[in-house]
Amino acid sequence: MPESCFYPSRMDSALSHALFGLPVGARVREFEIISVLGSGKSSLTYKAYDHQLSRLMVIKEYLPAGMARRSGDTFMVEALPDRADLFKHGLKRFLAEGQYMGKFQHRVFREALQLFMENGTAYIIMPYYEGNTLRKLVREGWRVSELGELLVIILPVLSGIFLLHQNNYCHCDITPNNVLIRDNDSPILLDFGGVQKKGVSADRPIIDLAPGFAAKEQYESVDILGPWTDIYAISALSYYIVTGSIPDVSVSRIVHDSLKPLSSFATSELPFNVLKVIDKGLAVEVDDRYDDIASFAIALKNAITETLMKSTNPIVDEKMSVEKALASFTPRHQRVLENAAELRHQLQAYAEV
């Protein structure tokens, strides 16, 4: 059952933060801590065993670095004397994150099963999924090499993010570390810590902006955030899983943009005109990107249609035998079609996609 504790090896400060976490074997209600999964600026995430339901869970605990500490030998969390107001403000944001996870139900979002306060702090209880983050997969040498592989990741993410946009929210933290690929290839967005209302907000959540995946407007508190902000991140994510390289930091591209276009990596399996759509989503300036998910999805659909019309794809080529066509129609193709149909249904109110 419980296994040895794992601490992330990103940097000394992250390790120091994790050392304040709950120890292996600690109990929070019916949940027994197995290991530390990750450390963020405002929280720690644990793998835990649910003794009530006899299954693995993920627990996210509000424990902001530099603002709070464990009290003596107990599990109680207390704010540092000169950080009490900031601690309370962050706690409010953390509870809002759990509420967002409960409010926005979509298969690409990890669900909040419980949200409660205990030990002077708060906890979000979530399902545990087997799989690897895109960051881990790419670091181990995996790359997207064909269009179906790209779409089976990107389309569900677009569908989930569109649900947020419909409710006037933006995700604002779509990164390779926040996207888990399950064993059946389906993506899960792990974190809702950056979710905020569209527009300009003085109440932006405390998150670590991921260089290469954060749009330039996220670096300025007076800039307007919107669907175009998430479109930038999704495009950057696409760039990363195709090339294996993190795009140049957005603010560094303002004066001199030396980023090699994704379309320059086009192959017969990853067509130029589809990758060109993603290049536009990765434009530095907001006005040069797509305004919303509908525009982005329509551009992708048009590019894919153009590609299929020019190809001898066995799925659409009537000259090929039924047997050969069926042999080429993989489960991944079926998932792409299902994802596309779901997104098309969502966008009906905007345009025929």
Summary keywords:
Transferase(Phosphotransferase), domain 1, 17% strand, 353 residues, 2 domains, Phosphorylase Kinase, domain 1, six-stranded antiparallel β-sheet, alpha+beta, globular, three-stranded antiparallel β-sheet, single chain, disordered N terminus
Describe the structure.
The structure is a single chain. The strands form four sheets. The chain has a six-stranded antiparallel beta sheet with strand order 1-2-3-4-8-7. The protein has a three-stranded antiparallel beta sheet with strand order 9-11-12. It is an alpha+beta fold and 353 residues long. The protein is built from nine helices and 13 strands. The protein folds into two domains: 12-127, Phosphorylase Kinase, domain 1, CATH 3.30.200; 131-349, Transferase(Phosphotransferase) domain 1 (Transferase(Phosphotransferase), domain 1). It has helices at 12-18, 84-103, 134-139, 147-166, 227-243, 272-281, 293-310, 322-328, 331-346; strands at 27-28, 31-39, 43-50, 55-62, 68-70, 77-79, 114-118, 121-127, 131-133, 169-170, 179-182, 187-189, 196-197. Residues 1-16 and 313-328 have low confidence and may be disordered. Helix 4 (147-166) packs antiparallel against helix 5 and helix 4 packs parallel to helix 9.
